[in-house]
Amino acid sequence: MRKVLYPGTFDPVTNGHIDIIKRARELFDGVVVTVAINPGKTPLFSVEERVQMLRESLKDFDNITVDSFDGLVVEHAHQVGAIGIIRGLRAVSDFEFEFQMALMNRKLAGDITTVFLMPHEKYTYLNSSIIRNLAELKSDVSDFVPPAVLKKLKEKFSK
Ligand code: ADP
User: pTM of the predicted model, to two decimals?
Assistant: First the structure.
């Protein structure tokens, strides 16, 4: 069973992330989507909310599981039995940071390979922070996020 880990903040998950996850599940037997707990960031949604939104959005796919972790990505990859790490590349601007991380992770764990996937071009300008800003300003983000996320954003910013 060739499993891969897709780590991210997912604050919240967008259709760009979903596009990457669907591509990964076609290439590998299983995908573990994992919400990384990053003490340096103050997220809009709690870890539990982010996991819940991912689970709801991915419930129709049997080879995808969702969890969360606190610590090193490569250690979590070993824990879940993954052979690689999936990352999404949107534009050249993502490349430098992702390249550094991939090489550092290879240094930390030579048996874990980072695989980069590109989303459909309609998602290349999409990120979670733009979605949070638009939703706060009550703009319609229904083209960019799964229905479960749209509902949670509306609740968050209804006051
Ligand atoms: P992080 O805070 O670790 O970047 P994100 O949840 O924002 O976490 O992203 C996780 C991964 O998904 C990263 O590899 C990022 O480049 C990728 N990603 C984010 N948004 C998109 C998108 N619209 N299309 C493709 N990949 C994306």
Answer: 0.95
